[in-house]
Design brief:
conserved putative lor/sdh protein from methanococcus maripaludis s2 fold, 5-stranded antiparallel beta sheet, about 35% strand, disordered N terminus, about 30% helix, Elongation Factor Tu (Ef-tu), domain 3, rod-shaped, 6-stranded antiparallel beta barrel
């Protein structure tokens, strides 16, 4: 029994003495584990100096430069009307009004014109005969003058009837309400059989190919804006650079904002779509910028993975600033020219060897995504 007790004490002492040796072996093996890990396959891109212009983002909308509520110039019963969603060409009929009354008035005018022309023809023949008689002094000069006056009155009546007839015909053409430009019928404001009054709205026609962005911006930004200034337009996850086409330098007294128009020809999105517009809010400055994919966003702090001189991974804490065109401003220990991991860095450990592969480029460059 006493021998067993001595054996247990000896084993316990041996275990205590062995602990420092085990810890030392474990510590010595830790770096070896990272060093022995297979090289991580990554793609890299350099940090660069880039001109950055801080931006103020304002909400805007896609509108059409040609958006008209087309009204009737005459009154009458609607006998034809376009459908909502129908595409129309410039000059195509949007609505047709019943022109029966005007057609009858035109026929009446034509009859009056025929009567007066017959009377005028007779007066011209009589004037020729009277002129001969007056020259021979066979009739009084007063009779000849009266005949000429009657002939002139008929000529004036003929001119009046022609004017009325032209007006009636013009009014008949106005009984067809036509599209002022190519577009699509966005709204219809009258129905078949309704009586349309003069000035009554027929339809709203929108040219969806003549798009622009309307945005309101704080008046404080006016000094950084002018026609031709480049701005960013963002919608549905897509972003592009466009130019200011018009600036209205008049601020609203209540909102202290002014209106801008931005040309966005070829942007295939519906009129009325909400967009965000990035407007320059300060002078351009040069900063250290890295691809957005290089920044690892973590709760404990953002960082980038840099390739050190020996080709191994090194975590570098950074603070991010403005972003533009897929690049992010960073401050910290990152220097221009540093090679930063932008693909495959999510699982790279500090000190791990890196197998750097060429970056596969898409048709518009590498995809931009936040980790």
């Amino acid at each position: 029994m006493r021998s067993l007790h001595k054996l247990l004490i000896a084993l316990a002492l041996a275990g205590v003495l062995a602990l420092p040796l085990l810890k030392r072996d474990a510590d010595a093996s830790a770096p070896a584990d990272t060093a022995d890990a297979p090289a991580a396959i990554v793609s890299v891109a350099p940090a660069i100096n880039a001109p950055f212009s801080p931006r103020h983002w304002s909400p805007g909308s896609i509108i059409s430069r040609r958006d008209a509520r087309v009204a009737s110039e005459q009154e009458g019963r609607v006998v034809e009307v376009v459908e909502v969603g129908q595409r129309v060409r410039k000059g195509q009929a949007l609505a047709v009004l019943d022109d029966t009354a005007l057609r009858l008035r035109e026929q009446e005018g034509q009859a009056d014109l025929a009567r007066i022309q017959a009377q005028l023809a007779l007066a011209n023949r009589q004037e020729q005969r009277y002129a001969q008689l007056a020259a021979q002094q066979n009739i009084a000069r007063a009779q000849y003058d009266q005949l000429r006056a009657d002939r002139d009155v008929l000529a004036q009546e003929r001119a009046g009837v022609l004017a009325q007839l032209a007006q009636t015909r013009h009014q008949r053409t106005q009984m067809v309400v036509r599209a002022p430009f190519d577009g699509i019928v966005a709204e219809r404001h009258t129905q078949l059989g309704e009586y349309l009054v003069t000035g009554g709205s027929v339809a709203r026609v929108v040219d969806t190919g003549a798009q622009e962005v309307r945005v309101r911006a704080p008046v404080d930004l006016a000094r950084h804006l002018a026609a031709g200034t480049e701005v960013r337009v963002r919608s549905a996850g897509e972003e592009g650079t466009y130019r200011v086409s018009a600036l209205v330098p008049v601020g609203d007294e209540t909102s202290r904002q002014l209106e801008l128009r931005i040309a966005v020809q070829g942007l295939d999105i519906p009129v009325g779509t909400a967009v965000d517009v990035g407007l320059p809010s300060a002078a351009t400055r040069t900063v250290v910028a890295v691809p957005r994919d290089a920044v690892m966003l973590r709760r404990e702090g953002d960082f980038v993975v840099r390739v050190d001189a020996s080709g191994k991974a090194e975590r570098v804490p950074v603070k991010t600033g403005a972003d533009m065109d897929g690049m992010v401003e960073v401050t910290g220990s990152v220097r221009v020219g540093d090679r930063l991991v932008i693909r495959g860095g999510e699982r790279v450990e500090p000190g791990q060897r890196l197998d750097i592969q060429p970056l596969e480029m898409g048709p518009s460059g590498p995809a931009v995504a936040m980790h």
